[in-house]
Specification:
With about 140 residues, this protein is α+β, with helices and mostly antiparallel strands. It has a single domain, classed as Sandwich (Jelly Rolls), CATH 2.60.120.650. It is built from three helices and nine strands. Strands 1, 2, 3, 4, 5, 6, 7, 8 and 9 form a nine-stranded antiparallel sheet that branches. InterPro entries: JmjC_dom. This is Cupin domain-containing protein.
């Protein structure tokens, strides 16, 4: 697990006292460790032809986040619990658009689009990162 500490990530064990601090918790590589998320990631890979990774972000009101940033991948965000407030700069000449995701909402953020998030209460969302790398061919499928 990692804790988000402003623009940094801190790797900690689950029994570390730092886990109790008010920071967003990040759970990485869920596409490897959780079967239903692996299947969802594989489905996205098949549809898009690109590799997909998944992480979960769990936050409470007031938790520290990364601050304004952009990502090197296209993001498919799925709100699993609570709500998240997004500030998204789609036009560099205007202020950010405010978007609130709630349970079941899906938000697509294109690579390089600046955004910032806050948590009004409790939040859990999945972030499927669609990379530029082509999807790996499954050896079992290649034999068919």
């Amino acid at each position: 697990m990692t804790l988000i500490d402003g623009p940094d990530f801190q790797r900690v064990s689950s029994n570390d006292a730092a886990v109790a601090l008010p920071r967003t918790h990040s759970y990485e590589n869920l596409h490897v460790h959780v079967d239903w998320i692996r299947r969802a990631s594989c489905s996205l890979e098949l549809a898009l032809g690109r590799r997909v990774a998944c992480a979960a972000y769990a936050s409470q009101a007031g938790d520290t986040s990364l601050g304004p940033h952009d990502d090197d991948w296209d993001g498919v965000i799925v709100q699993m619990e609570g709500a998240k407030q997004w500030h998204v700069w789609t036009d560099p000449h205007k202020g950010p658009k405010e978007i609130v995701t709630r349970l079941g909402d899906v938000l697509v953020l294109r690579r390089g689009v600046p955004h910032d998030v806050t948590t009004p209460g409790r939040s859990l969302h999945l972030a499927f990162a669609v990379t530029n790398q082509p999807r790996a061919v499954d050896p079992m499928l290649a034999r068919m």
